[in-house]
Amino acid sequence: MTTDYLHHPYTSQRMTTVANKGMVATSQPLAAQAGLDILKKGGNAIDAAIATAATLTVVEPTSNGIGGDAFALVWTKGKLYGLNGSGPAPASISIDSLKSRGYDEIPKYGWMPVTVPGAPGTWAELSREFGKLSLKETLEPAVRYAEEGYPLSPVLAKFWKNAFEQFRETLTDKEFEHWFETFAPNGRAPEVGDVWRSQGHADTLRKIGETNAESFYKGELADKIASFSKKYDGYLTKDDLASYKPEWIDPISVNYKGYDVWEIPPNGQGLIALSALNILNGFEFNHKDSVETYHKQIEALKLGFADGQKYITEQREMSVSVQGLLSKKYGDERRKLINDEALMPAPGEPPKGGTVYLSTADSEGNMVSFIQSNYMGFGSGLVVPGTGIALQNRGHNFSMDQEHDNALKGGKRTYHTIIPGFLTKDGNAVGPFGVMGGFMQPQGHVQVVSNLLDFHLNPQAALDAPRWQWTEGKKVWVESTFPPYLAESLRRKGHEIDVQLEKGAFGRGQIIWRDHQTGTLYGGTESRTDGSIAAY
Could you give the 3-state DSSP secondary structure of residue 459? Predict the structure, then answer.
């Protein structure tokens, strides 16, 4: 494997981090350090991923929480494993039931969009299957930060304040008061440098660790969640919690420029990234900063999204097969739709059949790509009293159309935005990568993979490069650092270009790349947030 890309002259805001014993990359320095501490304590990359993920529920609650979902790709002992840690809708919910309550669409906040939280079960399952330390040990850093407190970093404080201002205006019912008690205890959002702590978080994380998450799904914590739901006529019950278990699944992939790009299969939207790469496989890109490069990437991504938004749901509920969507023949057919003008995307007919991201690696060869979220920042706006458990609102993505593949149904998992990625080459691990940020995620995956494999940028430069985001129709957002002459050239091709000053719209990513010959680790972290790499 060549390492020429490591010396690519592309200007980057930070230098790639290099180490060989262990590495943790994520959006919060304190969480990255927590993972590294676990590695130094004798844990492996899986233990470090769990520790980092749990700590992120405390030190970045604006993007994820104990009541959210998670997905993982784990490379260990020469094989890649996938873990789907997303929870289903409550068994008793239905489209007819919601309509009888006066809902024509699934709301963003409150109990209606709450699905079974999968994150605690995912931590416990990863620990049981591949961890070296106990779950209690790996959760200790998160418990400590929750109990002792920590000072807010700049980007974290910004998103916290934004959420507070929005929630103060919209979440006025009594069921939401516990969010304000937990996250705005002084009647305002904490500011940069303010120390925030939550004994509720600490107690809950300690119970999850001591019981291997049994308390969360069948014990004391489950009782508190179910009681809170019942009090406000929610659908979530203790039976829903008790019946939940994360699912080990086979990852899906396409080969792109000699590398295998891996994603979690549906209900995740990683399929969209793979669909776009399958289309792009038929093109040769000679220059990164070329209007033809960006035009074709945008068009391929639009086609991938059109199919994804029509077909992605729980895999057994899909009306077409993943294999059909990713077939070479179907990719060739979709590629023919791309011409010199921006198109209005529409789904094809294939053969029938708020988020945090982290990467870890250790000296034994283990690597983890892990993503976790409550969705839309803090999620549903509900916090289980006294526990710090902020519940997700993933159910908002269900369709209220009975004929849609992703139609709401009790016990079903919805179309999911959070996706971890992984690269291999010739059967060897190259490493984990990911870009968080709602529907930006598959778009970030495509752009980062292309930066790495088409243009041979190093991991840090691949993340720092200006990004774009397709939003709908022919509308495309570009970062303020996007070259103006390229933006104007894209306009001439029919793209409706809008320059966005808000960097948070373009996702936040992490990459760890292992040189198979030397074992050396190369890491890149996100310059658009408080990102950090801890390594030794």
Answer: helix
- Residues counted in the chain: 536
Report in angstroms the alpha-carbon separations of 88 from 116, 204, 368: 6, 22, 24
Structure tokens at 253: 């992939």
As given in the structure block, the two tokens for residue 392 are 């997700």
Dihedral over Cα of 400, 403, 408, 413: its sign: negative
Give the range among 43-52, 171-180, 254-263, 306-315 with minimum mean pLDDT.
306-315
User: What average pLDDT does this structure show over 415-426?
Assistant: 94
Four-residue CA torsion sign, 339, 345, 348, 354: positive
Distance CA 466, CA 353 (A): 38
Q: How many Cα atoms occupy the beta-carbon half-sphere of 460 within 13 Å?
A: 20
- Residue 6 banded pLDDT, cuts 50, 70, 90: very low
CA atoms within 13 A on the CB side of 334: 35
State residue 503's pLDDT score. Answer: 76
Question: Which pLDDT score is estimated for 437?
Answer: 82
Structure tokens at 51: 């520790």
> How far apart, in Å, are the Cα atoms of 308 and each of 195, 267, 333, 417?
42, 10, 16, 11
Q: In the chain, what are the domains?
A: 51-246+384-397 (no CATH), 255-355+425-535 (3.60.20.40)
AA letter at 369: S
Residue 283 tokens, joined? 């093109």
Two tokens, residue 373: 């979220």
Return the pLDDT at 13: 54
pLDDT of the residue at 9: 41
Q: CA 426 to CA 504: how far, in whole Å?
A: 35
- The upper half-sphere exposure of residue 528, i.e. CA atoms within 13 Å in the direction of its Cβ, equals 25
φ and ψ of 326, to 5 deg: -100, 10
Residue 282 in tokens: 């038929």
Confidence at residue 10, expressed as pLDDT on a 0 to 100 scale: 44
Q: Is the pLDDT of residue 118 over 70?
A: yes
What is the mean predicted confidence (pLDDT) over 82-109? 97
Which residue in the list 76, 122, 355, 417 is annotated as catalytic?
Answer: 355
What average pLDDT does range 457-463 have in this prediction?
96
Active site residue 360: no
DSSP state of 175: G
Residue for token digits 């570009």?
478
Residue 59 pLDDT exceeds 50 = yes
Residue owning tokens 């940020």: 437
What does 371-414 look like in DSSP terms, one character per residue?
Answer: EEE-STTTTTS-EETTTTEEBP-GGGGSBS-TTSTTB-BTTPPP
Nearest Cα residue to 475 out of 450, 501, 447, 494? 494
Quick one: 2 exposed, middle or buried, by C-beta within 10 A (0-12, 13-18, 19+)? exposed
